[in-house]
Each structure stands twice: as C-alpha cells, then as structure tokens.
Amino acid sequence: MRHIISILLENEPGALSRVVGLFSQRNFNIETLNVAPTEDPSLSRLTVTTVGDDRVIEQITKHLNKLIDVVKLVDLTEGNHIERELMLVKVKALGAARDEVKRTVDIFRAQIVDVTPSLYTVQITGDAAKLDAFLQAMAPVGILEVARTGVSGIARGDKVLSL
Amino acid sequence: MELLSGADMIARFLQDEGVEYIYGYPGGAALHIYDALFRQDKVKHILVRHEQAATHAADGYARASGKPGVVLVTSGPGATNAVTGIATAYMDSIPMVVLCGQVMSHLIGEDAFQETDIVGVTRPIVKHSFSIRHPSEIPEVLKKAFYLASTGRPGPVVVDIPKDMTAPTERYEYIYPKKVKLRSYNPVTRGHTGQIKKAVELMLKAKRPVFYTGGGVVTGKASEGLTDLVKKLGFPITTTLMGIGAYPQSDQQSLGWLGMHGSFESNMAMHHADLIIAIGARFDDRVTNNTSKFCPTAKIIHVDVDPSSISKTVRADVPIVGPADSVISEMISLVQGQPITHPEALKEWWEKIDGWRAERHGKLYEPSKPGEALKSQEVVEALCRITRGEAYVTTDVGQHQMFAAQYYKFDKPNRLITSGGLGTMGFGFPAAMGIKQNFPDDDVVCVTGEGSFQMMMQELSTCKQYGVGVKILNLNNASLGMVRQWQDLNYKSRHAHSYMESLPDFHLLIEAYGFTAITVTTKEELEPALERAFADKHELVFLDVKVDPFEHVYPMQVPLGSMRDMLLSKTERT
Question: Where are the annotated coiled coils located (chain A) (predicted)?
C-alpha cells in the first residue's frame, strides 16, 4: 500500500542524505520526495511517499525515527489527510489544439502561466491521480516537458505535526 | 575564561571526558591535534601500524571496559582505512568515537590531497556523524559524539575535523559541557509496564520456555539481573554469540549458545519451545535459520532498546522497547514470590532438554589419537583449563572463532570478544591489544588462524613499542578453514583459494619482533606450551599450533531449514 510519511528534520547539512541513504541502504522504496524549510528555520519538513506492506512501513518509520536528525514523523495515511502536488507542464498549443488545451485546463481547474506562439505552460495542483489524469488528457496534444514537486501533505482536523 | 585553539580543545576535552587511551595514526590533516596531544600527558595515545587496527583496538577496549573507544586518524586514506573497524563496531553496537582529520574547509570538494568525504563514506555504518564547521563548536560536538556513542543502542560516531578548525592561531573560549541535550534523541530509559506485566504472565504460564539473550544484555550491563531472573524462574537459557557469558555457561540452566553453530540442545529447545523470551537479541539470520520455519510453536517476547530491532525479521507477540537492565529488574519484582503455573510441565521440559544434552554428550568431536594432528577443539579446551576459564578471549573469524566460542566456557560477560555481526577477519589481535592495555593483570588471548592473523600481524610492532603482553593462539590448519568447510559441503571439495600455500615461518617472524614463539605439533607438547605461554602475564607469546585441516565445525544448521535441522558431523544429521 502507498503511504505518505511527513518528517520534521533538523535543517543541518547532511541530514537529507541520511534520510535518502536509509531508503536505499535498507532496500525501501521512495516514490516521491519533497523537502523545504519550515516556519522554524532550524527545521525542514520532508514528505516522502513510499509503497510497502505493514511490516515494511513499520520498519521504515522505526528506522527513520532512529536517525538522530529526525525530530518527529507521522504517517499521514493512517488518518484523514490532505495531499497535494504541484506540476508544471509544457504542452504543444498549435492551431485547433490551442483552444482544446485551454478548455482542458479549465476543466481541471489548472492555470496557464506562460504562453508562446507554439506552447502553453500549465500549472496544476491536486493529488497525484488528478495530475496523472491531466497528463493523460494532454498526451494526444503533445507533452513537451513535465516538472512535478512530489507529494506534500498535512493531516485534516486539529492534529498538528510540530515540536 | 580560557581561550584554546581547536586542537587544544580536543586534547582538553578528551581529558575532561576521562578518556585514557586513544588509538591512532598521524597524518597531515591531524597534525595540529597530534601536537596538542604531545603537549599533555593525561590521554595516552597508542600509535598503531594501520588505522584498521586503531578501530579494532578501541573496539576491544570498549567491549571489555564498557567505555567508548576513541580513535584518531588523518583524512583520506587514514579515514578510509578505519572504515572496516567502524562497520565492525556498528554491527555489534559498540560505543566508539572516531575523530578524523579533514582537508582545510576551503579545499573541501576540490579533490584536494588526501581528501575523502568520510562522512559520506561512513554514513550507513555510523550511529551518527558530525562535521566541525567552526572551532568554537568543538566542545559541544565532541560531547554530543560521546553521548550518542554510549547511550541507547550504542554505536560508532564519526567527527570530521577540517584542519583549519584546529589551527593553533585561532583561539576560542573553552568550557567543558557537562551535559548535552538533543531534541531529537531521547533513548528510552524503561519499558512499558503493561507490556512487562503481560510478558511476565506469559512467562509464569509457560510450559516450554527458553530465554534467548544477546549482546544487548552485555552492553546494557544487565548480566547480574538476567542471572537472577533466570534462576528465579528455573528456565533454560541460551545466548547468542554476542551474548555469551551474560549468564554463566557452567551453570546447569545454560544450554550454551544457539544458531548456525550453536549447541544441539539450544537449537532443539528453541524449536520446541512454547515461549521465547528474547532480551537484547536481534533474531539475526545466523540465529534463526529460515524465519518461516523458526520456532513454530512459540510465542515471542522481545525486549530491545532499539525499536527497529523488534519485529524486523521475526514478529514479536509481546514487544517491549526498553533497556535490558531496567526491564529485567521490573520483571524480577513481578516474578518475586509468584509460583509458576505448570511446574510439572517445566519438569518434563527439562527432562526433554537433558535428553538432548545426553544425546550429543561426548560426541561433539573425536579427539586426536597419538600420532594424529591435533584437533582445534581440544586445543581450545586445553586453553580453557590452563586459564581457568577466566581469560579475555578475542577471536578472528572462521572455524577457530566457532571453536573458541564452543569449547571455552565463559562465566562472565565481556570475556568472549568477537566480531559477531560483521565477521571481520583481522579483528582479534588488535582487539586483544586494546583489552590488555586496560586490563594488564588479566590474561588476554587472541584465538586466531593463520589466515586472519596475517591480516593484522603488523600490530606486533605496536605490541613491541608498548610492551603489550597478549597471547596469540594460532590454530594453524594452513587453510581458510570455514571457507574450505563450505567448499567441502557445497562445492564438492573444490578448494578454490582456501589454502595458504606460502605461510611464513611464524617462529622466525615472531622472533624478529623480539617475542617468544612456541610451535606445537603434538598433544604432549600442548599443555606444557600453554603453561609456558601464560607463565608471564606481561610477555607476548605466540603459539603456533598445527591442527587438523580436515576438521569441520558442527553442529551446523542446514541452509533454509528450521532451528533443529542440523548437520551433527560429517556423517550424521538430525
């Protein structure tokens, strides 16, 4: 099963490589990885999506917790949560396709953020499935380039991941 | 306020931390630190002949003394040479602090002379690592390093120190930090009381219980409590290789050690048990054999200070995260005065176990007959007799390691000092050196083989320099015995590179360093040679004992089988 693990990490040099290294060292999977400093500059928040059965996920969280740089973590998929990913896509926009692309962008509630005579750059946010669906819809028109941030997530309700 | 250079802060910190010995080898990036060490006399620096030996010596010292071992090496090759020793300490959870010189900060990343990203290289084999970014951080970083290395589940910590951080001209305020706090590191100090209660209930109700304890009891200094608990309950106990001696092996309740080359009765008892009480052991593959066939009828209680050890390979029914000593003492207070529910079942269980014991008694190996080559097993038995089972025994890796563990009887923890997890050939001799310096009045013997010994024999020179009187028992079968055994069993005796064709004349070699060597080829020579070797506690003596190269280590678990599936000799199996 797919899990989203959110980690508060010491914002220290080498900390990220310890997290990433752990995954390869222990033969765990990383599907997506997303990291940036938080409002507290001494902490980074890292979101990783991974796939594994309960035993594997238990090992992943235990080993992550064992890293000295990991301050706190939560498996967001254990409860209700919001997950979002941001994607920038360059798609061909020539002739009749130009309107078609614009319509699809509206349907997906995406935005065109840059325009040239031959292409649109589209910004879209949502969960991974929505982004996949958008790419599928655009495929016949011609996708030129894709940049995805990987999943970022947060728990619903009053639960807060902080120190 | 005291102003010190980074190098002087390091020397001063080591003094304030109470470090007695530091093992190392100088080089460019570490020279400021070496100069600071030279100008003081509290911390003794031992100059090894190879950095790997520095880590093994510090490791041996740490295992025997319970205090972190300290290593100082230079950047690049100095640091990479230390890697095997760091990995050895990591696998066996040994507290160690490794100070590595590094090229100057402004050169990092430029492929400077003797530059290696040692923090990167060692990342998967350390508990944690630090890079010094400003000299003023040194006292606090070092305190954190010692704190991390020696608390919770211990392990090695690397501190990378660019040369400019130790420059004599840059001085900063030095205060010894008595305490240090890390917001992300809070090792558990006691187990969950509810879980411990649950465990004790299972223990009292068990019909076929076995204690299975490991290195966590030794490093957690919980041997006394364990002995008390096991005695109170009257249960059998088996230990891992790393846990040997945590419970006295000469006691009737001890079944010896378990696993691939463990005792017949240990493995049989584990397989048939209805309750396994695992403490400070990690269900490693050399213990469990095939996990899907592991102990089919047993419930499992697993106590470990490291939560990631629990249910890693075998699922625990009652997991308890906590240090061995406090969990055990809580168990003792709960067991106190409580009768076990099925005393008659426990009696039957013991009858069964005694039956297994009797089945293999006297059949473990065939002693040599007059005119035949000595058997390694009888050599170790003689060693145990001559040293009254009280020596510190270090080993290298292979057949001799298993024989030492099988035939020397250990009644105290920290007496068998062996590379259990990583299985590092070359570990034994430098480790013995580290122990002997800490315990000069005890017998310290390295049981080794001619293959392993040659990996670290340059340390004879270190022993000469510091007058280290270790004994070296070289079980010389002129082959890599364990490799050869596997080749006999799995490769139709095609002995690919498992023989030693051009062995040195060890006698001459040892004498070249000014030490005594004794060659033993017959049974009659054996005991007198051992007596002579151990007569003077402060003299290094090398015993070159020619042993039977055809001998195998048994029992040996059958690959992919259960605990009870064992080869018992070249012709028998369970």
Answer: none
